[in-house]
Design a protein that fits this description.
Number of domains: 1
Order of helices and strands: EEEEEEEEEEEE
Shape: elongated
Structural class: mainly beta
CATH architecture: Sandwich
Strand content: 25-35%
CATH class: Mainly Beta
CATH topology: Immunoglobulin-like
């Protein structure tokens, strides 16, 4: 099953609460497919490892994903936040695969500081839920995944204005319940745009505008 999804936005605050960084992050779900064909699995929600920034991922999509009982059913992907929810249009499952060409975008605010080890960036977590569901049967639980988008961001604030002002990363999530055996493969990304960011030092106030994009 292929999906397309976007999540966005960050604002960074220095130790004193100054220095604001606004951005958009787009998240795109690319595929749902069986575990036996899964070549790379990673965790974005709780892993202590930072995701890598990559170019546009090229994904090989197997021909099977959902159990045969899902054929001709329509599924959608939910991206739920504390302040709202975005949902893809329903797509019919065919031979275990549902393909989405849709992108969803949201701008949010994230705060950070240089209070981490060795003056590394420490971001305030920005969680949301990502999950697939059968259209018209929300009581059918296929598993929910809690994601922290700040795992996408560089280790230092300075990197946001240099070579890591944009990045993309692909990970995967296993479905459960009636869809056990299928996997949702997701690409996350962000892009910093606008004037060259200048991050505050010694309580200097600086506002920066960023937008994010993922493919």
């Amino acid at each position: 099953m292929m999906l397309s999804k976007i999540e966005g936005g960050k604002k960074i605050r220095e130790d004193s609460g100054n220095g604001k960084l606004l951005s958009e992050i787009e998240t795109i779900s690319k595929a749902l497919y069986p575990d036996k064909n899964l070549s790379r699995t990673a965790s974005v929600s709780t892993s202590s490892n930072r995701p890598r920034s990559t170019g546009k991922p090229h994904l090989s999509i197997p021909s099977k994903g959902f159990p045969s009982t899902f054929d001709n059913l329509s599924v959608c992907v939910h991206w739920k936040r504390r302040d709202g929810e975005l949902v893809t249009c329903p797509v019919k499952v065919f031979e275990g695969i549902a393909e989405f060409e849709e992108k969803l975008m949201h701008t949010c605010v994230v705060y950070g500081s240089r209070s981490g080890p060795h003056h590394s960036a420490k971001y305030e977590a920005k969680h949301f839920l990502l999950y697939a569901a059968v259209f018209g049967a929300m009581d059918l639980d296929l598993g929910k995944h809690r994601v922290d988008l700040t795992r996408l961001l560089p280790l230092t604030l300075e990197e946001l204005e240099e070579d890591k002002s944009s990045g993309k990363w692909t990970t995967s999530y296993k479905l459960s319940g009636e869809a056990k055996g299928a996997t949702m493969n997701v690409s996350f990304g962000y892009t910093v745009v606008g004037d060259t960011p200048v991050f505050p030092r010694n309580n200097q106030n600086v506002n920066e505008l960023l937008t994010g994009e993922a493919e």
